[in-house]
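Quick start: what a row looks like.
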Amino acid sequence: MLDKQDDIRSIVYTVTEILKADKLDELTELLSNAQITIEQTGYDNWNGGIYFYTIYLTIDIETFVRIRDRVQNIETSLLEKFSIATRHVDNEEISSILIVPKAQAKINWSKLSGITTQTKLIKDVNYLKNVMISVSTGGQRIQDVNEEYKATYNIVDKALQKLSFKNTNPFRDLWEWYSKWSSSFSHYRERREFIGEMYNTLLQSLEENEQPELISVTVDLTDWERIERSINELRLRQTEAKSEEQFQVVGLLSRETIITLAQVVFDKEKHPILDGTAISKTDAKRMLEAYIAVELGGSSNETVRRYARATLDLANELTHKRTATKKDASLCATATISIINLIGAIEGRI
């Protein structure tokens, strides 16, 4: 019984309800948020044999640090509740509870730039999971969805490699999946369980690693490698920034990114400086103003020109702000991405 996932879930639910009834809110929260695994850790052959199990509760570092002086007492209290919930089980016994701290590795989502986005990756993983279930349980026909499945699989596989995640799905083609299920799983339930076990941990990891993101880069950065590298660094620094000095670094990186963008698109022969001033190679504001005036010329584009100038002014002002705050850093980074998207759209990178 204790080696079956459904039975374990039922026992955990019962223990959670007991904790709630006893108003043990801290233990209820801990159990609800922990990653729970169970392993057989002993056997006694006396009186027909008894199998002993250990339940491992994996929790985040912050929670563990908060309770570490009371860990043994908490483990003892939880073991008592699990013993109550399993008193009807013969020849099996939960002999110990161990609380284990684990640091959650943060995903550097910027690595997906040019491939996909966090939201799209999670959506695509769910698509693969659902299609595999559908074709193997009397739903969609393989021949109707296989091409889309293979294309999505390739994108997901490439993205997971970029994020250093193992692709838990070995079936690049739905006919490969057909060969597996037709020879190994007679019942729909078995097929659903197999796919669930294959994908659930991966999806949980992707969904729990959400980080505050900048607005998305919506334009193609092919051949704009320096700009792409700058954006990736900008995202990383914005995510990590906690002090005034670090917020200022976000501003400096934003400024350098805008300078790089201006140098890529500005052509002094084609884009005359509006005030006739001789400019340096780092005068991004004048270069981009000249570029926008030419590329968005005409009365029909006046609204777009105003937006472009306003976005550029905001980014330029924030990159020079010395009393930087977290909000300033976020606004600065967002304005920088906005001007990249705008210029990229003008360049036809959409």
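That is the whole record. The longest strand covers residues 35-44. The chain has three domains: 5-101, 109-208, 225-346.
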